[in-house]
């Protein structure tokens, strides 16, 4: 465990960030990265605690960057909430963060519009670049499909590419991701394995509000009524878990139908409900091994509330 970190140093420049990390490593510290898109809440801060628990002398870096390449033009990039001053206060109050990496942009943007009107399959970034613009992408080919990838075809390509860029800039030894974004966590683990990044990936447990709703920066956009309705996700997962653990009916189809019904009755618009093997994310027909239930539903106009349920350890 490191000594108290005090006020984190805010670094905006890529080269300065890399130099900072290299200096920390030369001092014998393990560099631990927590990537975020800002507007921090207790869920993010739990990742910081996880980072701070890394053994030996450490240097903890939190990145704050709203990644345009993971948003389709129809999505909420323009209204994604931000509060850098508040984030810095929260991070300083943990006493566990040594640096905040807050790059103005991680891309070389070109001048010519490319495919700007091609709809949801084109990311916000792509719509804005051309010429000298960014054109190299990382695809985790199987894991990026299905679940969130079905209705958001550019999402994981954008996530994987920016996380790889953060890894190349910060050069961490360890990086911490939340299991709330279960598919993202598994996909990053696979990318790190496949591309030989020398980085240990830690998956951190979901942090929920007192009433059970998974904490999310986007929750701020929920009206009181929508928030109430969104609690049906947690309710439906708890019921499914009980049903699966009691072996009352272990057919995935049956449990998925029950979840869809609960969400729909609550006024949610279901994006997907899947019961998957924990590492491969391959859907299972029968719950006869540890699985994860993944649910995404819209409550309100633009908001997707996503939850990867905790494992059903007993199948
Ligand atoms: P975001 O800023 O939403 O991109 O999230 C940054 C990181 O925090 C990701 O690894 C998320 O999975 C994680 N995270 C966000 N919300 C929670 C939560 N409620 N519990 C645990 N981790 C979370």
From TrEMBL:
<protein>
    <recommendedName>
        <fullName>Pantoate--beta-alanine ligase</fullName>
        <ecNumber>6.3.2.1</ecNumber>
    </recommendedName>
</protein>
<dbReference type="GO" id="GO:0005524">
    <property type="term" value="F:ATP binding"/>
</dbReference>
<keyword id="KW-0963">Cytoplasm</keyword>
<dbReference type="InterPro" id="IPR014729">
    <property type="entry name" value="Rossmann-like_a/b/a_fold"/>
</dbReference>
<comment type="similarity">
    <text>Belongs to the pantothenate synthetase family.</text>
</comment>
<keyword id="KW-0067">ATP-binding</keyword>
<keyword id="KW-0436">Ligase</keyword>
<dbReference type="GO" id="GO:0015940">
    <property type="term" value="P:pantothenate biosynthetic process"/>
</dbReference>
<dbReference type="InterPro" id="IPR042176">
    <property type="entry name" value="Pantoate_ligase_C"/>
</dbReference>
<keyword id="KW-0566">Pantothenate biosynthesis</keyword>
<keyword id="KW-0547">Nucleotide-binding</keyword>
<dbReference type="InterPro" id="IPR003721">
    <property type="entry name" value="Pantoate_ligase"/>
</dbReference>
<dbReference type="GO" id="GO:0004592">
    <property type="term" value="F:pantoate-beta-alanine ligase activity"/>
</dbReference>
<dbReference type="Pfam" id="PF02569">
    <property type="entry name" value="Pantoate_ligase"/>
</dbReference>
<comment type="pathway">
    <text>Cofactor biosynthesis; (R)-pantothenate biosynthesis; (R)-pantothenate from (R)-pantoate and beta-alanine: step 1/1.</text>
</comment>
<dbReference type="GO" id="GO:0005829">
    <property type="term" value="C:cytosol"/>
</dbReference>
């Amino acid at each position: 465990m490191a000594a108290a970190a005090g006020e984190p140093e805010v670094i905006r420049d890529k080269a300065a960030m890399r130099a900072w990390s290299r200096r920390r490593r030369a001092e014998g510290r393990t560099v631990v990265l927590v990537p975020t898109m800002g507007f921090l809440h207790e869920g993010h801060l739990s990742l910081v605690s996880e980072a701070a628990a890394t053994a030996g002398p450490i240097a903890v870096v939190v990145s704050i960057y709203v990644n345009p390449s993971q948003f389709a033009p129809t999505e909420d990039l323009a209204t994604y909430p931000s509060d850098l001053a508040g984030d810095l206060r929260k991070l300083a109050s943990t006493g566990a963060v040594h640096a905040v990496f807050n790059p103005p942009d991680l891309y070389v943007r070109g001048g010519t519009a490319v495919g700007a009107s091609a709809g949801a399959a084109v990311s916000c970034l792509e719509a804005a670049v051309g010429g000298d613009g960014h054109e190299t992408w990382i695809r985790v080919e199987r894991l990026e499909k299905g679940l969130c990838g079905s209705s958001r075809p550019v999402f994981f390509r954008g996530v994987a590419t920016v996380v790889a860029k953060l890894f190349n800039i910060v050069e961490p030894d360890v990086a911490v991701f939340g299991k709330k974004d279960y598919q993202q966590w598994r996909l990053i683990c696979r990318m790190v394995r496949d591309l030989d990044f020398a980085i240990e990936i830690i998956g951190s447990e979901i942090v929920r509000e007192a009433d059970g709703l998974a904490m999310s920066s986007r929750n701020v956009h929920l009206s009181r009524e929508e928030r109430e309705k969104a609690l049906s996700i947690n309710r439906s997962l708890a019921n499914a878990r009980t049903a699966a653990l009691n072996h009352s009916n272990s057919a995935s189809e049956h449990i998925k139908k029950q979840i869809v019904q609960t969400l729909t009755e609550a006024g949610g618009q279901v994006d997907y409900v899947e019961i998957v093997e924990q590492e491969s994310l391959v859907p299972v027909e029968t719950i006869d091994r540890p699985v994860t239930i993944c649910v995404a539903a819209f409550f309100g106009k633009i908001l997707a509330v996503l939850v990867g349920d905790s494992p059903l350890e007993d199948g």
